[in-house]
Amino acid sequence: MVTTAQDVVELIDAHLGVPRRETTVDEFLAGDPEQEVHGVAFTMMATLEVLQRAVAQGLDLVVTHEPLFFNHREEWTAMLAAEADPVHAAKAAFIAEHRLVVRRLHDAVHDTRPDRIVAGAAHALGWHGFERADRPTTFDLPATTLGALADHASKALGAGALRYIGDPDLPVSVAGIQPGFWGFEKNRTVLADPDVDVLLIGESNEWETAAYAADAVSAGLAKGLIVIGHVPSEQQGMSDTADRLADLLPALPVAFIPTADPFRTA
């Protein structure tokens, strides 16, 4: 029996069981949805390295949480192609040569309850069971310090270049987490909450959330900000999702291909 990329996506969407957003980024980004597929790779971000590893494993459908061509809504794709951008050209040529199909899985996993990406990060951090019922991204933790929590997050999430703002000796017992990029207003709301000691994020614009956290510290507020990095902050959530979805596809090879954290410290 032939299994197409569209068949696989329909199984995934049915399993997740959330209404499709009227405007969504969960679309096919490359390749023919009706193409027969021989294996499925799930990943956090479809970098060229991830695509190369998928091909080496014989996996021709790549389900990625983040964009293929560097923009949330892929709005740059046509522009980059028109300008013959060398990075876009190399990636697009590799996809075409190996007849890869790439499909995004972003909105649906965030729309599940609990949010599977947040739950994955909490799982990696050992925070399951500590969630605040009224705030699903906020956790009551065993007492620790900001510095110790930053070290733990770096190791637990595989963050090669984690940074933080605040006094390393600051006692913290309530933490918010917003993996990936949630934007300043959502970050600020959590940091301004008098009950929250520290916020862990994937990334932000530094003139917004980071500047706000730095000013909070200068104002004498007991606050901390931990910047994990986008990829390591969401990686576990996609890995856990892939593990669950693999059971839907017993006739196909299925693998989670981790995305390397691109940042290193000097």
TrEMBL record:
Belongs to the GTP cyclohydrolase I type 2/NIF3 family. Transmembrane segments: none annotated. A divalent metal cation binds at H65, D111, H230, E234. Pfam families: DUF34_NIF3. Coiled coil: none annotated. Signal peptide: none annotated. GO terms for molecular function: metal ion binding. This is GTP cyclohydrolase 1 type 2 homolog. Keywords: Metal-binding.
